[in-house]
Amino acid sequence: MNILDIIAKKRDKQELSEEEISFFIDEYVNGNIEDYQASALLMAMYINGMNIDETVNLTLAMANSSNVLDFEGVFENSYVLDKHSTGGVGDKVTMIAIPIAASLGVKVFKMSGRGLGFTGGTADKLESIEGYKVEQDLVGALRVLNENGACMITQSNELAIADKKLYALRDVTATVDSLPLIASSIMSKKIASGVDKIVLDVTCGDGAFCKNEEEAIKLSRMMVRIGKLVQKETIAVVTSMDDPLGRKVGNTLEVEEVIEFLLASREEIESEKYKDIKDVVFEVVACMMKLAGISDSIRESKAKIMEEIVSKRAYKKFIDIVKAQGGHITSVYMEHLTENIDIPVLPYKAKFMKEIKADKNGYVNYVRTDKIGQALVELGGGRHKKEDEIDLSVGFELKKKNGEYVNQGDCIMQVYFNDKEKFDNAAVYIAEGLKVNDSKVIGTPMILDVITEEDLN
Ligand code: URA
Q: Is residue 293 domain-shared with residue 421, that is, in the same domain?
């Protein structure tokens, strides 16, 4: 077998066999296939597509390209779950959903990525907490998981090593946004992490990878099918990312919003203020409870989730996980709760704040949410390149969301920053991403679809 024949076969729109795909992955990881040859094959896969058998074979070859973890025997009678989001702007769902799920008895082994481009990464956000160690070895991660029912760590460099190498190549050869390549990249890491079942939050809209619903549903079905074929039951929740999620965007700011949400009252959680976060978090956790065998009724699960938050049990679980991973905690008197509450120490504070004001009367419209994500990168809160250091203190607080009415001069957004030149660069993107319109744009529901194994035909 040789790589030239494999490239030619895919170039000529033929199906690659399991052996050919395994050969490509093994030899590429071993250094016997050059980057330019792998790039040519990726481009042929991108242009001519791959059927489901090829996609599954690629997924498994990448999953098995280095260590594969195994939770067999770690918990008696409990599945270990993962929750993964395809990313977005202001996406803090993992940091809220995992403690709620763990508090309700779901075991979660959560590995998160770092931010690259206009979407943020949970691993960076958690590092806004003083002392929090996202880089844990397996022994440390299992200890946290055993003691608290969940851990939130960063993606191990040793898992699915082929995906790591290929993803870096796709990033510089315009071959990222291919559905079979995305599906196999995500699922290979999930399979290598050894979890039993998976909930995917497949984001969709101008602030996400998938720009339209049809594409997001296609990707979701592909990943649910891969999960089924490898006996790791998967549910995909297709969610809207037309608007930044929640009211805070930026690493420290998002952790602040996580704390606020987990300490909110029932009335606040049911209010317009938290509607988008609530809709996504409740659906994702209810799906996790279903897969964990805790409850089949999504409605009953959502009632339990609300109780878990308003009783502060979910918040306590968040604090327990943060402490177990080395995060520093301080006790603060909260006037609205009339009690002392343990909160994580968030040491990064921006020096300056400026308001973005409405230039006329009308309705706020985040016309290009990706531009808001890009504005965060310009402030220093995200990365242009993988090696970039990020500024955890900068970001935005949205005073108005899509569809809210403003008068000329009203504050729409507060920008927290440390460098005036960076602010000016970010302001260009904000101007492209945020408009005031004469008419109100009707938003889509947050939950666009939920795809389970039963939905596959
Ligand atoms: N996230 C991944 O892990 N891989 C992709 O290809 C795209 C998004």
A: no
